[in-house]
Amino acid sequence: YPSGNLAIIITRERDQYSLIVQEDELKTTKIRAVFQSDGRSTCYYLNGDEWINMSTQGGQYLDQAGNRVRRWMWLNLSPEPHVPLSPIFISLNRYVGVRILAQDKILVSFLAMGRQAKFNMATKVEVSAASQLPPPAQLGEDELLLLAFRVRILQLFDRMRGCINFPSTEQWNKMQPPKYLMTQALKILELCMAADISDELRNSIKAIVNA
Asked: pLDDT: is 8 or 122 the higher one?
């Protein structure tokens, strides 16, 4: 960093390497991100809470309260319905940014005093028919219902906020739920299609999340 504090550390052990981003602090040396060549990576908020977590199968994006805002699967890993990745860009601080475009295009950039360095910390894991990745666990009836009611409660809270912010009935009747709630509702419906449950329960869950 311009302050003289160490910003990025790259380590290597045999055929594996890691990139560690530190915060611009001398005494605490907070770790803001760790990227590994085997596909595992984590970015942290300034207070140490997890921000983005990625593996060879996919990743998730959390807000500062710990709620999952986005979740995705890498396109080449699963023939099943899944939520694809939309490009993500975050700034760990004023000098270091992370851009996640695809499994093989995860860029860490450092910009200071008119000079820039870029690191591609991506990996590419091809999965064949003989892959040993475990199949996703199917959820039971109670778990699916709980997930559906959770989404419905979040939808109601969002609608209440809309009523408070926009008292006019004509305005909030036209408002759509946040994109992440729509994504969660879609994911629950996909899980229902894959689960061994009755059509009656499947229709009930569909009615809950689409109410």
From this structure: 8
pLDDT for 158-180, tens place per residue?
Answer: 777 777 776 666 665 666 667 77
State the DSSP string of 40-106: -EEEE-TTS-EEEEE-SSEEEEE-TTS-EEEEEE-TTT-SS---PPPPEEEESSSSEEEEEEETTEE
Task: Count CB-CB contacts under 10 A for residue 7.
Answer: 20
pTM, full prediction: 0.57
Flag whether pLDDT at 89 surpasses 70: yes
Would you kindly state where each structural domain of the chain is located, as residue ranges?
Answer: 8-120, 141-210
Q: Is the pLDDT of residue 79 over 50?
A: no
DSSP H helix total and E strand total for the chain: 4, 11
Distances (CA, A) of 148 to 43, 56, 74: 29, 28, 25
**Contacts made by residues 50-57, CB under 8 angstroms, sequence distance 24+:** 51/90, 52/88, 52/90, 52/98, 52/100, 54/100, 54/106, 56/123, 56/125, 57/133
